[in-house]
Every structure is written in structure tokens, then in C-alpha cells.
């Protein structure tokens, strides 16, 4: 059977731009058709912004690569039109189990809270997610939306100008040039864009190798994330087992630093390791094997004039916690509504600097979490090893130690506390919906709160009237009731009888009040689109 | 902010010290180290208060530092 990643999904074909006498100008060019680049392109096209994606390849990535997609990512995919198919295809899981040595020490639930449309996580091979996103691009293009992917178009040189970027693009039929008003670089951890621009990417290298193997097997392990510290089959190291669709299982084995990487990748080495873990009698075949090391690092700034970096190109973390692809989709979710507004002339260019502030903040949080996980999973000193094992021994017996066990702090969206677009908070409202927070979902009628919000700003009025805002383009009012809806009331009202929320297009809270106040709404909206009072007419 | 209590607080210091030594009886160095680590974690959880814990960490670390001249 031909695998999806062996099929060209967007094969090279000659574009009229290649025969133009001078470089054709585009509003936005996205580099890279991975999950992050595709998400950026779909988001922009849905907002009516013309976008061209250039990718050096012509198919989805081979191997599963990223597999854990968080609730927040699914909520973003809902807005991009791919949420349902991702959840239908993916394996839903909420539970994790931790083993130490030969013991099963405890299990945990990632979403103990009810009242969310989407589960805490699904597992889905990255090639499936990319396939769904490519298909979505094709649907949008067929509907006449201004979006296209050009396969086997590799950027060889970048020229930066005050009001545009010039690209030299290599194709199977030779080079051509393009211009872009804005360039979004989603070209991965080894970003050629970053290299061509000579930008630093510094951080911390972790001296460890991990074997990643995706195996196809019929097995009756439950749909849980299983994590081993120091198991008998991989002494002194860690191991992870995780289910994906199509009976594919992700196995991740820590190997240590001083190994022969080429030799360890060979089936004659890999298969005995896997048999030691799964049992001699389990039949499996290898789908994908790779050995990786990792770093935790980020660029100093994500915006460099008209070039904006997103995803792994801008920041890199250890895989523990699934904070790579998930944070990349949060990047583009943050960026695209801002860029669309700037292109429309409905916000100043400085709005894009808030992308830099907020996503650098997010990257630092992810780097901090993934660094802490790595230190717990792979202790590098005698004393850190001692305490790590003490925590695990206690966790087998006492509940208090379980939250200290760190086998990866799984990706949750960050709250942009003190973010530049937030307005001052009002007292006595729930902490989980303070300004900067990602909007928590809640049941609403027969559906869900997040699905009821529009593509632009929303004034969410709960148990309180809200007149249509005058002269504020792009705000939609949604009046709802929290009667007989304790989850909504708990998350949005607390002890108050009503509340009004100004919600950004990326579903973060910009401001909130106990009741409507026209002046306050206007001020908060202007702040949320980076317009200082008096300096800009929205 | 609650303060870390660095004044006398043990009713019977000799008994506590003897009990502390007793749980290490017959243990290897590695076993004793592990026991100490567990004890620190159990006591830290009991204290709970972040600021008290930070003061305790500093107080423990400071003893090793050279006195200021």
C-alpha cells in the first residue's frame, strides 16, 4: 500500500509568475508547507488575504513526527475547518500512566474538568494533519479563496527592503523571482530563512539521544500515554509508549549520549530493543525509525521588519510535553488576524510587535517547561538523580508527590499576563478568564461557546445587555445567558450576576467588565489593536 | 508573608536527633541519601508555603557561603 507521505499532493507545475518579466508582487508569502505554514495560509485566506505557500517538497512529511495535538490546537483547527476530521481520525486520550523500575506507580487524567467540546489531546500522525490541511487549502482554492501551494519551490536568496521582501526561488525548471509585502517563515528548526538572514538561534543543547520508532502492531495496550522511568528493558533510561491511528504505536527510548547513532538506527539493533519492551511474541513492523537529539532555544526576536518567523523556525523545545507543533499553531493563530488587520489598514503596523511580545512570552514558557521536564526525565547529576528517584518512590505511595513527577508538562496555551494588548482587569472575576487568558470552552445550548464566536473580535455579553458598538469595525456582539449553565457561570461570572468580555479573534481575553460601558469598550478595543488613544482612528 | 522559624521550636531536640539517626541505622550511604531526599520532600510538602520554603532553601544554602567581611 502506498503511504500518504509517498504521494505528491501538490506536485510542481509551472506558474505564470515564472514567465513574468519582472518579479510578481504578492501580499503574503509563507515559506514551508508543514502544519504551521499551512495553518498560517488557511487562516489568512479565510480572512480574504491573498497568500502563496512555497515548499521545497511536494508532499506531506514522512514519518509520524509530531503526534500529540492539544485541545487548544483542536480549537484552532476548528476555526481553520479541520477540527472534525482531525478528531475523527485521531486517537482521543486523556489518561497517562507512569511506571518506575518494574512498578506501575500511578495514573493521571489531563482533563478532569468537564464542559469542553474537544478532548485534552488526540494522537495523530503529522502526515495526516498535513494532509487534512492541504485538502483544506484545496477546498478554499476551489471556492475561489486566494490561496495556493507551489511544490518544489525552494527559496535560495532573500532581499529585505523597507516595504517588501524579494525572493529568489529555485524550481525544477530553473529560478525565478517574487516579491512579498510580508514573508512568514515557517521553514522548520533548520530554517534556511534564518540562516540566509544571518540570525542567531542560541540556547541549550541536551546531551542525550533518543530513539523514536513508530511500529505497526495489533496490541491491546489501552489508549493511554505510558511513561517509564528506569524500566528493566531500558535500564537507567526512559521510555514512552503512545497509540496513534491505524495500529501505529509511538515508542520513544532514551539511549544516552555516547552511542553510535548510525548503528542504533539499524533494524538489527532496533528490533531487539523493541522486543525487550513489548515482549518476544508481539508481532510488529517498523514504519519509521529516527534518532534525535534536541535543544531548547529561540530567536531573540520573531519579527524582523517584513519577515516574521513562526513555529520551529522561531523556537525549539524538547519533545516532552508536545510543545513543538502545538505552540507553532498558537503562533500563527496569534499572527494572522493581526497581519490581516494591518494589511486592511484597520490597525497600525505596531500591532505586529505584539506578536513578537506574546509569542516570545509563549516560547519562554514552553522552553522553561520542557527544560524542567528534560531535567527530571534525564537527571544529569548524582544529586538530581537521587531526588528524582525519591519523588518517584514517594509517588508510588503518596498522592502529594505525584504532581512533582514530570514526564512532560503537556502543552496548554499560555496566558499573556501583562501583555501589551490587555486592558486592566476588574476585581472579583474568575482567575481563569482574566485578560490575556485563552478563552475556556463551555457548553452553550446544543453546542459550544467557542463555536459561537465570530472570526473577528467578539463582545461576549453574559446575563447583561450589550448594545451594538458604534463605529468599531469588526466587533460582533454575542449575548448569551448563563441560566442553568453552571460551567459557563463558573468560568466567566464567578460570584457576579453578569459580565461582558472583549474576545480577540484568536480567542484570548482582551478585557472584561461586570457590565457594559461604552467608553471602556472603545478604549479596550483600541488597545487590543495597538491603537493608542487619540493617535489613531479605528 | 510568613517567616521561616529559625528560633527554637523542637520540644525535645535530643529525642528528634536520636530518631533522625535511628532511621539511618544499618543503611548504606546510597540508601541514607535516598531517605534524606524523601524526608526533605515530605517536609517541604507539609510546609507548603512557597515563601517559607524559599527562605528555608536560602537558609540552608547560606551556611556553606563564606561570611561577608
Automatic annotation (TrEMBL), chain A:
Q: Report TM segments.
A: none
Annotated keywords: FAD, Flavoprotein
Q: Does the keyword Flavoprotein apply?
A: yes
- State one Pfam family annotation: FAD_binding_3
Among its keywords, does the record have Flavoprotein? yes
Q: Which InterPro entries match?
A: FAD-bd, FAD/NAD-bd_sf, RIFMO-like
Q: Which cofactor does it need?
A: FAD
GO MF, one term, reads: oxidoreductase activity, acting on paired donors, with incorporation or reduction of molecular oxygen, NAD(P)H as one donor, and incorporation of one atom of oxygen
Provide the FAD-binding domain boundaries.
27-367
Task: State the superkingdom.
Answer: Bacteria
Q: What NCBIfam families would the database entry show?
A: PRK08132.1
Q: What's the protein called, per UniProt? A: FAD-dependent oxidoreductase
Source species: Roseinatronobacter bogoriensis subsp. barguzinensis
Q: What is the lineage of its organism?
A: Bacteria, Pseudomonadati, Pseudomonadota, Alphaproteobacteria, Rhodobacterales
TrEMBL record, chain B:
List the lineage, top down.
Bacteria, Pseudomonadati, Pseudomonadota, Alphaproteobacteria, Rhodobacterales
- Sorted alphabetically, which Pfam families does this protein's record hold? DUF2783
Xref: InterPro entries: DUF2783
Q: Which organism is it from?
A: Roseinatronobacter bogoriensis subsp. barguzinensis
The name on file for this protein is: DUF2783 domain-containing protein
Amino acid at each position: 500500500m502506498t503511504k500518504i507521505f509517498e504521494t505528491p499532493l501538490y506536485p510542481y507545475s509551472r506558474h505564470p509568475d515564472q514567465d513574468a518579466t519582472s518579479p510578481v508582487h504578492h501580499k503574503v508569502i509563507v515559506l514551508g508547507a508543514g502544519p504551521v505554514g499551512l495553518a498560517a495560509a488557511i487562516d489568512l485566506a479565510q480572512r480574504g488575504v491573498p497568500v502563496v505557500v512555497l515548499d521545497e517538497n511536494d508532499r506531506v512529511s514522512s514519518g509520524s513526527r509530531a503526534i500529540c495535538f492539544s485541545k487548544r490546537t483542536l480549537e484552532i483547527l476548528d476555526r481553520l475547518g479541520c477540527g472534525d476530521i482531525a478528531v475523527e481520525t485521531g486517537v482521543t486520550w486523556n489518561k497517562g500512566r507512569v511506571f518506575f523500575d518494574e512498578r506501575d506507580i500511578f495514573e493521571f487524567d489531563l482533563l478532569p474538568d468537564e464542559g469542553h467540546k474537544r478532548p485534552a489531546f488526540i494522537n495523530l500522525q503529522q502526515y495526516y494533519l498535513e494532509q487534512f490541511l492541504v485538502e483544506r487549502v484545496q477546498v478554499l482554492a476551489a471556492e475561489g479563496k486566494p490561496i495556493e501551494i507551489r511544490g518544489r519551490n525552494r527559496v535560495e536568496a532573500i532581499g529585505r527592503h523597507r516595504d517588501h521582501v524579494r525572493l529568489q526561488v529555485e524550481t525544477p525548471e530553473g529560478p525565478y523571482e517574487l516579491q512579498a509585502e510580508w514573508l512568514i517563515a515557517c521553514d522548520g528548526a533548520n530554517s534556511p530563512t534564518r540562516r540566509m538572514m544571518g540570525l542567531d538561534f542560541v540556547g541549550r543543547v541536551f546531551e542525550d539521544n533518543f530513539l523514536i520508532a513508530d511500529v505497526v502492531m495489533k496490541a491491546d495496550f489501552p489508549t493511554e500515554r505510558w511513561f517509564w522511568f528506569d524500566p528493566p528493558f531500558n535500564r537507567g533510561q526512559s521510555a514512552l509508549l503512545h497509540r496513534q491511528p491505524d495500529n501505529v504505536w509511538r515508542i520513544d527510548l532514551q539511549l544516552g549520549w555516547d552511542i553510535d547513532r548510525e548503528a542504533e538506527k539499524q533494524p538489527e539493533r532496533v528490533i531487539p530493543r523493541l522486543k525487550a519492551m513489548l515482549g518476544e511474541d508481539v508481532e510488529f513492523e517498523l514504519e519509521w525509525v529516527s534518532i534525535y537529539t534536541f535543544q531548547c532555544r529561540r530567536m531573540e526576536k520573531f519579527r524582523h521588519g517584513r519577515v516574521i518567523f513562526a513555529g520551529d523556525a522561531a523556537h525549539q523545545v524538547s519533545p516532552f510535553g508536545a510543545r513543538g507543533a502545538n505552540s507553532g499553531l498558537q503562533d500563527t493563530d496569534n499572527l494572522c488576524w493581526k497581519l490581516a488587520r494591518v494589511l486592511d489598514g484597520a490597525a497600525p503596523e505596531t500591532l505586529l510587535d505584539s506578536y513578537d511580545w506574546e509569542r516570545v512570552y509563549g516560547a519562554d514558557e514552553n522552553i522553561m517547561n520542557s527544560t524542567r521536564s528534560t531535567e527530571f526525565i534525564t537527571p544529569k547529576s548524582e544529586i538530581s538523580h537521587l531526588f528524582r528517584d525519591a519523588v518517584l518512590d514517594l509517588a508510588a505511595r503518596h498522592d502529594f508527590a505525584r504532581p512533582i513527577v514530570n514526564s512532560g508538562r503537556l502543552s496548554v496555551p499560555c496566558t499573556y499576563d501583562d501583555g501589551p494588548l490587555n486592558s486592566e482587569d476588574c476585581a472579583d472575576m474568575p482567575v481563569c478568564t482574566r485578560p490575556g487568558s485563552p478563552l475556556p470552552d463551555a457548553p452553550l445550548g446544543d453546542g459550544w461557546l467557542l463555536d459561537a464566536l465570530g472570526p473577528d473580535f467578539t463582545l461576549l455579553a453574559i446575563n447583561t445587555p450589550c448594545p451594538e458598538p458604534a463605529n468599531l469595525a469588526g466587533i460582533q456582539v454575542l449575548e448569551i445567558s448563563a441560566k442553568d449553565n453552571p460551567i459557563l457561570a463558573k468560568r466567566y461570572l464567578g460570584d457576579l450576576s453578569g459580565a461582558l468580555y472583549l474576545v480577540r479573534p484568536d480567542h484570548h481575553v482582551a478585557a472584561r467588565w461586570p457590565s457594559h460601558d461604552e467608553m471602556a469598550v472603545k478604549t479596550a478595543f483600541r488597545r487590543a489593536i495597538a491603537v493608542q488613544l487619540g493617535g489613531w482612528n479605528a | 508573608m510568613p517567616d521561616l522559624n529559625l528560633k527554637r521550636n523542637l520540644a525535645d531536640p535530643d529525642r528528634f536527633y536520636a530518631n533522625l539517626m535511628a532511621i539511618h541505622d544499618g543503611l548504606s550511604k546510597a540508601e541514607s541519601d535516598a531517605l534524606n531526599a524523601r524526608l526533605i520532600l515530605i517536609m517541604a510538602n507539609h510546609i507548603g508555603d512557597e515563601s517559607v520554603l524559599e527562605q528555608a532553601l536560602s537558609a540552608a544554602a547560606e551556611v556553606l557561603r563564606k561570611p561577608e567581611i
